[in-house]
Specification:
The complex is a heterodimer of chains A (532) and B (160).
Chain A lengths: L10 H12 L1 H11 L21 E5 L3 H12 L3 E5 L12 E2 L3 E3 L5 E3 L7 E2 L6 E2 L3 H9 L4 E4 L7 E3 L9 E2 H21 L9 H15 L11 H7 L1 E3 L10 E2 L5 H7 L17 E4 L4 H9 L5 E2 L2 E8 L4 E7 L5 E7 L1 E4 L3 H4 L8 H7 L7 E8 L3 H4 L6 E5 L5 E4 L10 E9 L1 H9 L2 H12 L6 H4 E8 L15 H12 L1 E2 L2 E3 L11 H21 L1
Helix pairs in contact in A: 1-2, 3-9, 3-17, 5-6, 11-16
Chain B lengths: L2 H6 L3 H23 L27 H13 L6 E2 L3 E2 L11 H10 L13 H11 L13 H9 L6
Antiparallel strand pairs in B: 1-2
Classes of the chains: A alpha+beta (532), B mainly alpha (160).
Chain lengths: 532, 160
């Protein structure tokens, strides 16, 4: 609504008018423009109305999906219990801090030696502003958030085979790419090459826009000068007093940027999932899982390895090994079951569901991913290179280096995310190494970008998700074919069992997907319970 | 997740070109990377990473592929591992009698296992299949050829 022509109509009346004249889809688009309809399916805290008459629900997994289900179903009057393999809540919502010990599949154990206050998030580490559900739960459960810096113009884009391996500032690549392209487009426009596509009036506006956004000079050229320096910065920054005049730098030529392929890195700042503002919890992503768990007093049984799920007309029986009590097998029975176990695990557990659901459970490969946390004796990226938060992208196997978004400009030690691979050969290659070897490699690769690594590195940890004992993989890696063949079957209520988790969402590998999946599953399940 | 898309969209030609560049170096270093002895940072030349570039495995030969790809989950001794669930052992495994089975697993994946063969050439898939079928207590006759892998690949959804 930009014309302001209908100030006296009530919102409801306005929506009725639009709905009556052009149909529901138009209403929705109109609502979205007004900002009333969310771009997320999340519509605020769910309301589960009706008396479940003490129905009992066993929930498998105390990750965000399982705990969301537990919190909301208990609030609705159901009796809930969660079985969790780990001895902590959160699942992949997880923070490693100094003193933590982690053992991977294969038996290698790492002792995290970070100094107090330093941490790494091996799993989820950033929250987009449009992930409304997790943001709402953080607000309701008192999880303090702070900005996660995705784009730092002063971080680097790096290729081992471009610019002699010298890292380039994102600021330079971004400004010079856009300037170079704008100059080309302006040239074509002024030569009349676009006359068939652009009207005479638009032509003038286009040229003005190219000059403005591409930092072109009065002759529509992208050159060293005031215009480009205002975007890309200076060879020598402006100062005070004598000899304080700035010196403009020479832009990198478009040919060099194109052939370097460094422009590829810019995508990480354009994609919807990575647009500002992004968030992280103060103190580590694990604070969210801890906050959820506090909402479920006496509701989570830890150290419980699920080994079988059986349903009949009257209920669901779950067999589990009590890992705390040396593997004794026990059973728990409930009226219904919400299962949030990763499909890597569920596909191996005896479970009597329909053939279609079983096929869906078996249809999803899990991504392989590796992360590194590296502690350094000083925050050289801030002190020497003036990089405060943000991410450097590289074509080295570590793929990226993320600088901490907290403790900025305060000196002292720091922990970097020293690498994050997702899928691809390097994920498997790193995973196949012993943890100490992985860290050595990450330090060696990182030293190509920050030579200070060689003298300032203190200790590190690595988490290879394919070797994480409670997931055997990072996240559901749906192909389009598998999704179209199996996704709906995966999400059905099968008798007395319903699945939830990031794998049962269109936002795989994100916490929002886990929560939205759980909310959808329990709303349908709750209706079924009330009706039964 | 999404950051992989840009890398994935690299043209096949680019990936091949890049692979060619580092192939010779990788040959020597991949083997070194598989050695369990501690490696000092100084010993790892920063200019010659013993790892793949791009989206196809640089390793050559069954042993290197097994040690740097399969071992990620099935472990260096190929005996698998078990915690909340299991990675099956490939040692003394009667299922490996069938090359069709192995090819299908590598090219299509199996349950949670990704189709890692889609990041390998036909020769690489043949090499790793033949290697695992003749090591770790397996001694099955009948090696598969790259041509057979190619035919199997065409019959599966993982064809490039």
């Amino acid at each position: 609504m930009s014309d302001g022509a209908t100030p006296s109509l009530s919102r409801r009346r306005l929506l009725e008018l639009v709905g009556a004249s052009v149909g529901g889809s138009a209403t929705y688009q109109f609502m979205t423009r007004l900002g009333f309809a969310s771009e997320s399916p999340y519509r605020g805290p769910i309301k589960l109305e009706g008396d479940p008459k003490g129905a009992s629900i066993i929930i498998l997994g105390a990750g965000l999906a399982g705990m969301t289900a537990a919190i909301e179903l208990r609030r609705a009057g159901c009796k809930i219990n969660i079985l969790e393999y780990n001895l902590r809540p959160g699942g992949r919502n997880w923070t490693l801090r100094g003193g933590d010990v982690t053992t991977e599949l294969g038996g290698a154990t790492q002792h995290c030696e970070f100094d107090a206050g330093l941490y790494i998030n091996p799993g989820p580490w950033r929250i987009p502003y449009h992930h409304h559900a997790i943001l709402d739960y953080c607000r309701r459960f008192g999880v303090t958030l702070e900005p996660f810096i995705q784009l730092n113009h002063n971080a680097f884009l790096h290729s081992a085979t471009a610019f002699d391996g010298k890292p380039q500032r994102i600021r330079d690549i971004k400004a010079d790419f856009e300037g170079g392209v704008s100059e080309l487009l302006a040239k074509a426009t002024r030569k009349g090459a676009l006359d068939e596509a652009v009207s005479k009036e638009d032509r003038e506006i286009l040229l003005e826009a190219l000059r403005s956004l591409g930092a072109l000079d009065k002759d529509f050229r992208y050159r060293a000068g005031e215009a480009s320096a205002a975007y890309r910065g200076y060879a020598k920054d402006p100062g005070g007093g004598v000899e304080a005049a700035p010196i403009n730098g020479d832009p990198i030529g478009l040919h060099d940027i194109l052939t370097s392929r460094l422009w590829r890195g810019l995508q990480n700042f354009l994609l919807y999932d990575f647009q500002t503002t992004m968030f992280q919890p103060v103190g580590g992503m694990g604070r969210i899982g801890e906050a959820f768990a506090r909402q479920i007093p006496n509701g989570i049984r830890y150290g419980a390895k699920v080994i079988g799920v059986t349903q009949n007309e009257t209920g669901v029986t779950v067999a589990f090994e009590d890992l705390v009590a040396s593997g004794a097998v026990q059973e728990v029975r409930a009226d219904w079951c919400v299962c949030t176990l990763p499909l890597t695990i569920l596909s191996q557990i005896p479970l009597n569901v329909s053939a279609r659901m079983k096929a869906a459970i078996d249809a999803v490969p899990y991504a392989s991913a590796v992360k590194f946390g590296l502690q350094f004796s000083r925050r050289f990226w801030e002190e020497d290179e003036h990089i405060f938060g943000g991410i450097t992208y590289t074509d080295l196997p570590i793929r990226q280096i993320s600088y901490p978004c907290t403790g900025l400009n305060a000196g002292g030690k720091g922990v970097l995310l020293g690498g994050y691979t997702f899928d691809g050969p390097n994920s498997y290659e790193f995973t196949a190494m012993a943890p100490a070897e992985r860290v050595k490699r990450a330090v060696d690769f990182g030293a190509q970008i920050h030579p200070q690594y060689r003298t300032e590195f203190e200790n590190g940890v690595s988490v290879a998700w394919s070797r994480v004992p409670f997931t055997l993989g990072c996240a559901g890696d749906w192909s389009d074919e598998a999704r179209s063949a199996h996704y709906n079957d995966l999400c059905q209520i099968d008798g007395r069992i319903v699945l939830a988790g990031e794998h049962a969402s269109y936002i795989p590998a994100w916490q929002e997907g886990a929560i939205l999946s759980a909310l959808d599953a329990i709303q349908r399940l709750h209706k079924r319970i009330i009706a039964s | 997740m999404t950051e992989t898309n840009s890398t994935r969209s690299r043209s096949r030609r680019n990936r091949h070109a890049m692979r060619k560049c580092i192939e010779r170096i990788a040959w020597a270093l991949v083997a070194a990377g598989a050695v369990a002895a501690p490696v000092l940072a100084d010993e790892l030349s920063s200019k010659t990473p013993a790892m793949s570039r791009g989206w196809e495995f640089a390793e050559r030969g069954g042993a290197d592929l097994l040690n740097n790809v399969c071992a990620a989950c099935h472990q260096p001794d190929a005996k698998g591992a078990i915690r909340a669930a299991a990675y099956p052992s490939l040692a003394a495994d009667t299922k490996l009698a069938s090359t069709d089975f192995l090819l299908a697993v590598l090219l299509d994946g199996l349950r949670g296992m990704p189709p890692v063969g889609s990041m390998m050439s036909d020769e690489q898939v043949a090499d790793v299949v033949n290697y695992v079928r003749t090591h770790f207590g397996n001694s099955y006759a009948g090696a598969v050829s790259a041509a057979e892998v190619s035919a199997a690949r065409r019959s599966t959804k993982s064809a490039p």
